Hints:
alpha/beta, five-stranded antiparallel β-sheet, 13 strands, 31% helix, 219 residues, six-stranded parallel β-sheet
Amino acid sequence: xxxxxxxxxxxxxxxxxxxxxxxxxxxxxxxxxxxxxxxxxxxxxxxxxxxxxxxxxxxxxxxxxxxxxxxxxxxxxxxxxxxxxxxxxxxxxxxxxxxxxxxxxxxxxxxxxxxxxxxxxxxxxxxxxxxxxxxxxxxxxxxxxxxxxxxxxxxxxxxxxxxxxxxxxxxxxxxxxxxxxxxxxxxxxxxxxxxxxxxxxxxxxxxxxxxxxxxxxxx
Length: 219
């Protein structure tokens, strides 16, 4: 997909790197010249020096062709305006970083989905120990869904996907086995050492991991 990021600080540069690694085309807009250079040196993305709330800059960054606009600056007002402009200029989806919790109502009033950093911190802190082997790739669906990867432990007995009691709602989207990428079917057997890509709710990440730790059955 084509991703347009507004903000090249720590959050933006990290997201850009992860999205590029996942095979997405990434364009990033950043107002600070030093950050522009730093991101351009580290990430294989199109990095544009400019104001993410400027229509001309957004158009130069290809906003009308973007599948997603992710506004992740440290200023809620910038993220809000960037998302508004992105929607009016043709981007398909937007997501804003929420820095100040009491600004949430402003975003929700115009149906702009947000990811609250404080919300995610609470989730991460509460699940850090349980999720030591699970790597979250992205949080989607207004912060409710997790796209994650997990390596099946060595002690796991090979089990068909249909026989796993996955927490609802959960979906195993792909399996990486050695150099092979598998789109699983009901009869596909998951084996030790497989690296699965799954979609589940943020709240069910720990339960999903426990299914594999408990050898296919819920804890």
